Each structure stands twice: as structure tokens, then as C-alpha cells.
Amino acid sequence: MSEYYRCWAQVDLDALRENLSWLRHKVGPGVQLMAVVKADAYGHGLKEIAALLMQHGANMFGVANLGEARIIRNIGHNWPILMLGACLPDEVDAVVKDEVMPTISSLDEARWFNDSAKKYNKLVKAHLKVDTGMGRLGVEPKRALDLLYSIKNLENISIYGIYTHFASVEDDAEFSLDQKKQFNNLLNNIKNAGINIPLVHADNSGAIMHEPDTLYSLIRPGLLMYGVIPSGTRPLESVLKKYLRPALSLKCRVSLIKHIPKGKPLSYGRTFHAPKPMQVATLTAGYGDGYSLSASNKAMVLINGKRCPIVGRITMDQMIVDVTNVPIVRPGDVAVLIGRQAEDEIPVHQLAEWMNTIPYEVLTNITYRVPRLYKSGFAA
Ligand SMILES: *Cc1c(COP(=O)(O)O)cnc(C)c1O
């Protein structure tokens, strides 16, 4: 079926399921798992995988906006959902009505939710974010206890969770230790003040890999769940690579093959001139599919098991690759942009390096026109 598409992403549901089981197993039964599914589940298609995540170990969902929350609501009516970003003032009522848990950092936000909850006769379960070094959201640790006391006086909001976020856990052990200390100190003070907060969490994928003592009562994996390991300089437990499998691969097709003479320039801007007579192939994917222009003259693709470099600038719907060293290549052949073919693999982190970005951006840049095809050995 995939043979009729020009550029498509294949999502291996077995890989997703196994990655989740492995994460579940790794943290044990006492720790809950929030599946982070912002940006259409990191490009994998939220609507299509939400039920699978519910069935295979996700206790909660982390989303970026109300649209994503509603997709989950439509599938699992009472499933807990946390909005990871700050809520806009005009979203407050909808968040309260939909019973999405907001992330709050200030008393102002707590008051908005309290007022709205009063109006709709609800009790808002909020998560308080603590800024231990990320600098994006969250209350300063030294002001958190006062904030908690103030929120205690508001009748329609309760603090159900408290969390922080690591800023450079894949690279900087020292800074992460400092974040950890600040958070643990605060947790101690909260405990000593006799305040009980049911959920405590800090771990994104990087922290799950590098900070085994910060699991608390819930983890928040995104990238690892999709089988991709965040890049970084801190040494890594080697088992991760063995147990996690990337769920997404990206493919397109060969549309035309040409022989070109030495010196011929290729594509917009003529950034590539053939150094010798070459055989080149035109492929049916470009930056309109999310394959970034920045990979021009740098990235490789797999065709019939061989690595083929991209030559010249990537265009909106097409790009050109050098297939001089591919013994047999025909129009219609599949080219792998991310994933395995025969014995070789282009992992997403390698493509990210070629594009001078991170795996997160490569995955979430795959555009709407790229169909996601779901594959599973299990009966659906
Ligand atoms: C996106 C996000 C995560 C997941 O991050 P990964 O690195 O993909 O695991 C966790 N927590 C918060 C607050 C996030 O915004």
C-alpha cells in the first residue's frame, strides 16, 4: 500500500508498545508514567496511538494545548491529562470544564483557576511547577512554600502535583545535581510543613537515563517512548540502546534516474557541481515534507541498502541523490530517509546532526502531507 505514496512515515506500533513496557519495567510499579504526546505525539500521530498508550502503561498524558487534550478526552474519558505549558487567560474556562490539570507557577494563575472552578462548581487539580534552573515556567524554590500556603486558602483549587524540569541533563551533571538539590530541599520543607502533594515528578527522557534517583512518583518520558535516545555528552547506560527501538521511519521513492557529465551543476543555487560523470536519482521528498533544507549536500539516504549522499539543494517536493555506487536502482524504488534498510540504518539523531538540530525537531517537523502508516504484528 505504501508504494502509492511519495513520502510517508511508518510507525511501528510494536516498537512503541515494547518501549513503553520497558520504561514501565525500568521504573517499577510504584511510579506512574505520563506519556508526553505534545506536537501530535512527536509527529507520530496522537489520535492513532493514544489508545495504545492507554493500554500499555500510560497513567497520564502530558500535552501542550487544549486540542491535544481533547483528542485524548475523546478516547479515554477520564484519563488524567496535564497541560505542560502555562495556560492562556482565555483558555482557563475550557481547561476547567474539560477537567484538564493545569500547570501553574504563580498566585495569579491559581486565582484564575479558582474563580473559574467556582463558576462551574468544580475542583481544579493543578500541578505547581518549580523553576530550579530551566527558567521557562515555575516559581522560584524559595517562594514556593509561601505560594502553597496562599493557594491553600483557595477553595476550588488543590495542588495535586509538584514538578520541575531539567535544563541540560544530557550534558551537565553538575548543573543537574544543583537542580536536584534545590528540588529535594523544597520537597523536604514541604513535608516538614505538613503539606501533602500526591504527585512529585521531574524526569523527562534525559533524566530517566542519567538521574536514577529522581523518579519520585511519576516520570514524564517523551522521546524515549518513541524509541529515540536524546543526544548528549554524559555517558550512557548501554542497555538503553539494546531495549529501545525507534518507532518511526520516513521513506520516499526514486522518481527519475539520470547520468550527468563532469562539471554539471545541480538544483537551485548550483551549490553542487559533479566532480566526475555521475548517476543521480531524483527523490519524491523535500522540505515540504519536513526534510529540512539544511541537510542539503550533507545528509545521506538509503537506497537498496546503500548510502547515497544528497547532492545540491533540497527543494520543496524533490531532492537529488548520488546513486553512482548503487548497482541496481530503478524509478519506484524506496529510499529510506530515517530508519533501517537491509543492514544499514539512518537513525534520527544522525539526520538531526546533518540538519544541525536535535531529534525532537526532526520528528516534529514532518509535515501534515506526509501520511502516517501504522504497522503492527499484533491484531489491532
Ligand atoms: C516535553 C516535555 C517532557 C518530555 O521530554 P522528553 O525529553 O521528550 O522526554 C517532559 N516534561 C516536560 C515539562 C516537557 O515539556
Q: What do these coordinates show?
A:
The chain is an alpha/beta fold and 380 residues long. Helices cover 31% and strands 24% of the residues. The chain has 12 helices and 19 strands. It has helices at 13-27, 38-42, 46-55, 66-75, 92-97, 107-120, 141-152, 173-192, 205-210, 239-243, 348-354, 359-364, and strands at residues 7-12, 32-36, 60-63, 81-83, 103-104, 124-130, 157-164, 199-203, 218-219, 248-260, 265-266, 272-273, 278-283, 300-303, 306-309, 319-322, 334-341, 344-346, 372-375. Strands 1, 10, 13, 14, 15, 16, 17, 18 and 19 form a 9-stranded mixed sheet that branches. It has an 8-stranded parallel sheet with strand order 4-3-2-9-8-7-6-5. The protein has a two-stranded antiparallel ribbon with strand order 11-12. Helix 6 (107-120) links the parallel strand 5 (103-104) and strand 6. Helix 7 (141-152) runs parallel beside helix 8 (173-192). The longest helix is centred in the middle third of the chain and has 20 residues, at 173-192. The structure holds pyridoxal-5'-phosphate. Pyridoxal-5'-phosphate binds at residues 36, 38, 84, 165, 204-206, 220-224, 230.
